[in-house]
Amino acid sequence: MNFELQYNDTKSNARAGLITTDHGVIETPIFMPVGTQGTVKGVHMTELKEDVNAQIILGNTYHLYLRPGIHILEQAGGLHKFNSWDRPILTDSGGFQVFSLSDNRKLHEEGAEFRSHIDGSRHMFSPEKVMDIQRSIGADIIMAFDECCPGDANYEYARKSLELTERWLNRCFERFNSTDPKYGYSQCLFPIVQGCVYTDLRRRAAENIAQKGADGNAIGGLAVGEPTEKMYEMIEVVNEILPKDKPRYLMGVGTPVNILEAIERGVDMFDCIMPTRNGRNGQIFTRFGTLNMRNKKWENDFSPIDPDANSYVDTLYSRAYLHHLIKVNELLGLQIASIHNLAFYIWLVKEARKHIISGDFTTWKSGMVRQLSNRL
């Protein structure tokens, strides 16, 4: 993988660049749709490519390990062939999912023991096993195994958690460097900066990771319960230290406003389930604010869903029709909302890139944040 930093905004830390992988080029800033179980819920690969214009998607190690299972993915020739996606893929290590199983998991030096959320069966993730699983999945970018510390953790818990994550990271690199890709194309490993909301821990983690010389670096453990302003503060602390010539990935974030604020602070890559999850619940994101399509006010609004948007669903269907589909829980309504929201998120980061290059990002961003905060 190669990263070319092309433009730096003169009034902020916003950047525009290019990530080159064996499956294609990614323009940054970039939003990555989440395909947890090998699919972005309700969206065909053709729609992801041609309408949403996704350049890269995510898969999840925890979920793919449980279903369909690594033996199936290996027989298929990796996730790219299994799900017919020929562009880049990034896989999360499963650390966040194990974190979310707090009542059914146990952490220790060797790794994390947990019970499957599907059938209660017992499993063990070690750093080495997670690297092996991600080699078998075959993503272009794979993530280190870490503990995602709760946002409200006390300092002592956060410190011990970070120390464990750092020891696990060393083992991840050892395993990654001693194994080869399985499917004839290269993979790269991103470490993850943890440290909860404690400045000294975040600095320590970022300094340690900056010395690893990885192809890119991630910021994890944010948007997990801490105040939004604290999240922005931690991003600033970390990005002062992480190498400027490598992409920076903020994991699991967030709202459109969160993304613009993080871009201004020097983040290049984002993922979040919000566009599809909220879409399935009737929330539509637009450049002028959000719409709740369950509200009665839309039942006789026959105007396009979003006349200013780029997705085909936005002008093909009316707000009244989408309101009807959402109200009666028709699958088509969930699909339309998901496609629209994903296309909007990707439009947003493309616009950010355009304004970084043209030199007026901060002015554009300030106006956009005001608009995005509206409830229509």
TrEMBL record:
Every tRNA-guanine(15) transglycosylase-like domain range: 13-372
Residues annotated as the enzyme's active site: 92, 271
Coiled coil: none
Binding residues for substrate: 92-96, 146, 194, 221
GO cellular component, one term: cytosol
Keyword annotations from UniProtKB, A to Z: Glycosyltransferase, Queuosine biosynthesis, Transferase, tRNA processing
Single Gene Ontology MF annotation: tRNA-guanosine(34) queuine transglycosylase activity
Nuclease in keyword set: no
Record carries keyword tRNA processing: yes
Enzyme Commission code: 2.4.2.29
EC class (word): transferase
Signal peptide segment: none
Record-linked SUPFAM superfamilies: tRNA-guanine transglycosylase (SSF51713)
Region of interest: RNA binding: 252-258, 276-280
One GO biological process term: tRNA queuosine(34) biosynthetic process
Gene3D superfamilies named in the record: Queuine tRNA-ribosyltransferase-like (3.20.20.105)
Known catalytic reactions: 7-aminomethyl-7-carbaguanine + guanosine(34) in tRNA = 7-aminomethyl-7-carbaguanosine(34) in tRNA + guanine
Pathway noted in the entry: tRNA modification; tRNA-queuosine biosynthesis
Family that this chain belongs to: Belongs to the queuine tRNA-ribosyltransferase family.
Protein function: Catalyzes the base-exchange of a guanine (G) residue with the queuine precursor 7-aminomethyl-7-deazaguanine (PreQ1) at position 34 (anticodon wobble position) in tRNAs with GU(N) anticodons (tRNA-Asp, -Asn, -His and -Tyr). Catalysis occurs through a double-displacement mechanism. The nucleophile active site attacks the C1' of nucleotide 34 to detach the guanine base from the RNA, forming a covalent enzyme-RNA intermediate. The proton acceptor active site deprotonates the incoming PreQ1, allowing a nucleophilic attack on the C1' of the ribose to form the product.
Assembly mode: Homodimer. Within each dimer, one monomer is responsible for RNA recognition and catalysis, while the other monomer binds to the replacement base PreQ1.
Name of the protein this chain belongs to: Queuine tRNA-ribosyltransferase
Species assigned in the record: Parabacteroides chinchillae
Species lineage: Bacteria, Pseudomonadati, Bacteroidota, Bacteroidia, Bacteroidales
